[in-house]
Amino acid sequence: MYKETVLPRVLEQVVNCKDEIAQYYLMDCIIQVFPDEYHLQTLDVLLGAFPQLQPTVDIKTVLSRLMERLSNYAASSADVLPEFLQVEAFSKLNNAIGKVIEAQPDMPILGVITLYSSLLTFTLHVHPDRLDYADQVLGACVKKLSGKEKLEDKKATKQIVALLSAPLDKYNDIVTALKLSNYPRVMEYLDSETNKVMATVIIQSIMKNKTRISTADRVEALFELIKGLIKDLDDAFHDEVDEDDFKEEQNSVARLIQLLHSDDPEEMFKIICTVRKHILGGGPKRLPFTVPPLVFSSLKLVRQLQGQEENPFGEEESTTPKKIFQVLNQTVETLSNIPAPELALQLFLQCAEAANDCDLEPVAYEFFTQAYILYEEEISDSRAQVTAIHLIIGTLQRMHVFGVENRDTLTHKATGYSAKLLKKPDQCRAVYACSHLFWVDDQDNVKDGERVLLCLKRALRIANAAQQMSNAARGSAGSVTLFVEILNKYLYFFEKGNPQITVAAIQSLIELITTEMHSDSSTPDPAADAFFASTLRYMEFQKQKGGAIGEKYEPIKV
């Protein structure tokens, strides 16, 4: 009865009344008042009336409400979905929207996008498995947008973000969205600010759902989508970018790079190369955020390959640690060019350590050389130099891959740098840290007691000079902290069995410190006093331990 009598008569009245407000109100009434299944069975008749309404009627809102009702109906229960398929609801709605847009040539772009957005939501609810339908809707949207510049209308861009977010919310999986060929084409029409917003939405979706993106092709497609965050799409926004927002955006890209992973080393190497290609165009502000995660991703792959070398595959593996290190070298170099020398130096040292674990001496030596060049040529700030030299010493101490000649060259350089630091206390600390380069516990070929003693004596001379300078400049000798620190080094090597560190040397150092502390010119320093007291307590404790250690400490008078 509704189909044959009621609806046709009512629609006839609505179309004939020619009053735009009445038409809008009555169509809305029909949609809201009659049940969902009635609308489904009479879609043809109902949709046929829309193009006949007055051109000024707000059809987009009415149609959107109809699709919203049907979407909710479809979502309410799986049993009703066959009805939708039976009446071919998608194609009918799609055709109707096309006709309405044709009938109203001056419909604003916001209206067009709103209609397609509602249709996409409807499609995702009713036909979640039919990706081609969703792609078709996006394609129709691209068609309408083509020929237009980037969208300036704020409401329209907001609607496009809603349109593009719908598949992500529905599938909870960016991999599915990447299969939609028109998805990136719709993004092209967003201005660069909104493009960034959309890219952030995509990254958040990946993180929330812990999506695994494990092929280079998908990574390529994904980075095409989020290119708004990876490089400047236009130059206009340079000055206006808020520093905190920018950091937040780049940190999210860095987190994304860490999530890309494939268990197959070949594929993982391709992913690394794909990411590298995209991020290197990001400009000097972005590289310090995006290069480190890429470097560590690559080092993770190096370690994975390193574990597999005991059981080599039959065929020749094309992804080798050597190959990855070549890519790493070029990648980290870009940082030193921008310039971010401190960061580049840290990454070179990380790579050197990984090369050391893979037993690749020439590669490790090359990374060290790069780090040294940066130290000499780029790092001029004295605080940065102190940090860098301690990093260099710490990394070099853990190296076991170097032959005598290479190790000597690098060690000699490091001790040279240490003695050239600006402030005497910094010099002293770096020089006594170098003593560890000549005595490595688990390497018998690196146990040179004499050189250790030389370093410590040199550190003592520098500490003495620091005292005298302080005396000359301020009239007081300053703190004895440096002497106590050197005493601790003496004790460390004494315990390790370095024959050059004698009881007499330790004894005289203890006396020197005691004398300095009681001299008139020294400045009282409670921290140094406590440090010295706890060092003496430690020596007492070692004496009482008994055994070999106790015997060692016995002759020392505290």
Automatic annotation (TrEMBL):
GO biological process: intracellular protein transport; retrograde transport, endosome to Golgi
Pfam families associated with the record: Vps35
Keywords: Cytoplasm, Endosome, Golgi apparatus, Membrane, Protein transport, Transport
Topology of this chain in the membrane: Peripheral membrane protein
Ranges annotated as spanning the membrane: none
Any one of the GO CC terms: late endosome
Subcellular compartments: Cytoplasm; Endosome membrane; Golgi apparatus, trans-Golgi network membrane; Prevacuolar compartment membrane
Similarity-based family: Belongs to the VPS35 family.
PANTHER family in the cross-refs: VACUOLAR PROTEIN SORTING-ASSOCIATED PROTEIN 35 (PTHR11099:SF0), VACUOLAR SORTING PROTEIN 35 (PTHR11099)
Protein name as annotated: Vacuolar protein sorting-associated protein 35
